[in-house]
Amino acid sequence: MIRRQPLVRALLSVALTVAVSGNLRAAPEATPRPAEAAASALVRGEVELAALNYTEALKDTSLPNDRRAAILNDRGVANIKLGHTRQAFEDFNLAAQLFPEFAAVYNNRGNLLLSLGLAKEAVKDFDRSIVLAPGYAAAYNNRAGAYVRLAQIDDAIADYTKAIQLMPSSPAPLSGRGLAHLTLHRPHAAIRDFTRAVKADARFAAGYRNRAEAKLDVEHYDEAIEDLSRAIAFDVNQADSYVLRGKAYLAMRKTESAIKDFTKATEVDPKSALAFAERGFAYALVAANDQAFSDLNKAIDLEPRSGLAFAYRAYAYKQSDQIDVALRDIDVAQKLNPTSPEIYWVKAEIEEAQGQREPALADLRRALELQPGYRDAAESLQRLGGVAAHAQDVVLAGAGVDAWQVVEKGERYVAVNDQYPRVSIPLEMLGKGQPKLLAWELKEMPYRGIGLLRFQAGTLATKSGEEDLELVAVVDVDMGVVIAIEPHRQGEKVATWTWDGNKVTVATADGVTDEFELRVGRPEIAGSGMGDRRYTNTSQAGPAWAPWDSPFGGSFEQGPTKKIQVKKKKSKTIFDLLFN
């Protein structure tokens, strides 16, 4: 399992708006020469010069209030870049007093409040900005970030969705919504958003890194490594990318490659406790005890409250037959982080070494409850002869179809079928309610081994009322892999499916077209335990096919309204140059 980075740390914000970009209301008067010079300096990155010129422009006593407010707003942006927080607040506050209808200043002040950890106050400013400018995409995006800080993830997703509708070609809200989906354990939904984000910006390193994290969640290790290699190519100084790629290599039992990546992460960020902890664990796996203890002690020195580092050190002690010390460390680890699946796995390893089979089985099941796809725990459970995890779960009565059943795993649901013991399909709920399986179809040649499981994914509140949501899981039952989970129906909107060779194109119910490859012809996939899939977004169309003979016909008009159509690229504004 990959330890997820804090969501707010990875969120992208369309953070600040300068009035001279022309996107929002500003004074009709000609821009004073000092203000023009300031704007040019800001574009060049000469922030101190920009601030000086904005100050000079404000000396003009003939400026009307709205024009003075616009210049104050822009100087506030410059002051933020200079780290002058108090001066930035003063500029935004005065701008709001002079021109109370100026939406940009509330957006900017909200971001400043958010950067200081004042999320509730930030939401109030974003609210006002949106009231003044209902089409202000940046304010929706930024308010979503504030909701994330407040753990109001559903509200955050609603705002990200609105921002995406207003600026569908921007990667920022797509990436933000994808991270929110990850927080709610919806990796397949997250993959769809991150895929759209990197399609919008092919050099978007954070998008590739985030998509890799989602792919690691669904055990698509080869694809995660591919994405992380792209992320590293575009941003070689991001330690998290090396750590994640190292984790992917470790999951594939490529320990040497993993250690190389963890080492690179420690070089990029010598204060990364996570990088040292992961490298220490990798060394422990190959019984390089001296190196393991050196790294794990270093990780604990850097982050004394790292439950993961204590758990990994407990594993290293177990490997060196120091069970008493291992027990002390695992006890500390559980106190620091009582919900970590890795800690339960290490605890089970120690219990197994003590001959305590039943406690070990209980801890392994708990690890799998916390992270259903946790490979180490599943393999340990199998080795100990434990019952399959889903056999211990609660079956949701009346929710199955054919031989498929729905079981609850904590706050999550999965579909299982004794005919396919390697397959566990996560039922990602996108709306309110409980899942219900609707249909199962096993494809014939040339798609033999590919199955489609359609299920209800809750109800979604819309302007026209509540709409039922249906998703379709595309499954390679031979390989035990969930290839994708696609939106199939929202209300009366129905997806169309085009099957062409080894490729499937889905014009989904939410207006996006996805495309992915299947393992047609059954080539052997070495090492990863997964199909060789490439998941992209595309605008291609072909002969339509709808599974289960949809009563609404095989095709559906899914193009966005004129309000949110993607337009041809315009020349870059100062806002684009500064913040994109």
Question: How would you describe this protein?
Answer:
It is built from 23 helices and 13 strands. The chain has a five-stranded antiparallel β-sheet with strand order 5-6-7-8-9, with no helix packed on it. It has a four-stranded antiparallel β-sheet with strand order 1-2-3-4, with no helix packed on it. The protein has a four-stranded antiparallel β-sheet with strand order 10-11-12-13. The longest helix is centred in the N-terminal third of the chain and has 18 residues, at 65-82. It has 580 residues and is of the alpha+beta class. Helix 12 packs antiparallel against helix 13 (221-234).
Low-confidence stretches: 1-14, 20-32, 521-580
Distance, first to last CA: 32 Å
Q: What percentage of residues falls in helices of 4 or more residues?
A: 40-55%
Task: Assign an overall shape.
Answer: globular
Q: What's the arrangement of strands in the largest beta sheet?
A: 5-6-7-8-9
Rounded average pLDDT:
84
The structural class is: alpha+beta
Q: How many separate helices?
A: 23
Total strands: the figure is 13
Strand content: 5-15%
Largest beta-sheet details: 5 strands, antiparallel
Global Rg: 26 Å
What's the quick description here?
The protein is α+β, with helices and mostly antiparallel strands. The protein contains 23 helices and 13 strands. The model is unreliable at 1-14, 20-32 and 521-580 (pLDDT under 50).
Give a quick set of tags describing it:
single chain, globular, disordered N terminus, four-stranded antiparallel beta sheet, 23 helices, alpha+beta, five-stranded antiparallel beta sheet, 580 residues
